[in-house]
Design a protein that fits this description.
This protein folds into two domains: 89 residues, 2-Layer Sandwich (Glycoprotein, Type 4 Pilin), CATH 3.30.700; 105 residues, Immunoglobulin-like (Sandwich). By secondary structure, it is an alpha+beta fold. The model has no long low-confidence stretch (mean pLDDT 83).
């Protein structure tokens, strides 16, 4: 029996170099793709965390929550205030400095945090997913991450919200006296309405008169207040009926609570007796 043996050829040096080059290219592409995916995941996680920080500051007004701003009447000076109560006033019913003082009609103000679900690490929310500290602007309310490169004002910066935060709204109350609107006005009788809306000053930890408007009423009088901080505000309505020949008016006082959304334009009719 005859065997025809063929010599076995190995790889040439050129073939080995080509194979190694291809393997290097594939490894590099895989590394680049993996790095890109990791960077995208960090960017997404950073953006979501910034949204949570913003929600801690502003709340969710659509659900009737107003965050740090609604409780404190201002933007936080820094992100630490969202988790650390140090130096902040207690969350309770406030009163005015009037004599006698008036309270906030059941509305509470003050620090009611922590506003972030941060667990045991009080500083975890201060850094983005690349380990860089967030930059918080306590005038505009914007939160900025410097992104992968850690350098401000470059293409990879992440900013939320993209616009300046607005946390104030306006309210107009139109007040009517129940019954026939003009029934008290014959014979020189006059009706006056005084509307006072209150807000909160966290520096003094007191409720204060944001504004007071006094007017004679006939068919219905509108009282407008502008630039109120989002959240709940007590409103006092004082009704006086002055009868001809009687020195002291017939006076009644009514209270109600208003919910002011950010950038809101609230119009409400109020009926008093």
């Amino acid at each position: 029996m005859t065997y025809n043996l063929r010599p076995i050829k190995g790889f040439t040096l050129l073939e080995i170099i080509v194979v190694l080059a291809i393997m290097g290219i594939l490894a590099g592409a895989t590394t680049t793709m993996g790095f890109s995916l990791l960077n995208r995941a960090r960017e997404k996680a950073t953006f979501e965390e910034m949204q949570e920080i913003y929600k801690a500051i502003m709340g969710n007004p659509a659900l009737g929550t107003f965050g740090f701003v609604g409780d404190m009447g201002r933007l936080p000076d820094n992100l630490t205030e969202l988790a650390d109560k140090t130096g902040q006033p207690d969350y309770d019913i406030k009163s005015t400095t009037n004599v006698p003082p008036e309270d906030s009609n059941g509305i509470k103000w003050g620090w009611n945090g922590p506003y972030l679900n941060i667990g045991a690490d009080l500083q975890s929310y201060n850094n983005d997913e690349w380990g860089h500290a967030y930059i918080y602007d306590n005038v505009t309310g914007k939160i900025t991450s410097n992104g992968l490169d850690g350098v401000p004002d470059t293409f990879d910066d992440v900013i939320y919200p993209p616009y300046e935060v607005s946390y104030k709204g306006d309210v107009t109350l139109t007040v009517f006296v129940k019954g026939t609107p003009n029934q008290y006005e014959g014979g020189g009788t006059t009706i006056t309405i005084e509307v006072t809306i209150y807000s909160y000053d966290n520096q003094s930890d007191k409720m204060y008169q944001f504004g007071t408007i006094n007017s004679v009423v006939n068919e219905g009088k509108s009282f407008s207040f502008f630039g109120l901080t989002q959240g709940f505000h007590p409103v006092k309505i004082k009704r006086d009926i002055f009868y001809t020949g009687i020195p002291e008016p017939d006076s009644k006082t009514f209270w109600l609570n208003m919910n002011i959304p950010p950038r809101g334009q609230i119009h409400q009719d109020v009926y008093v007796e």
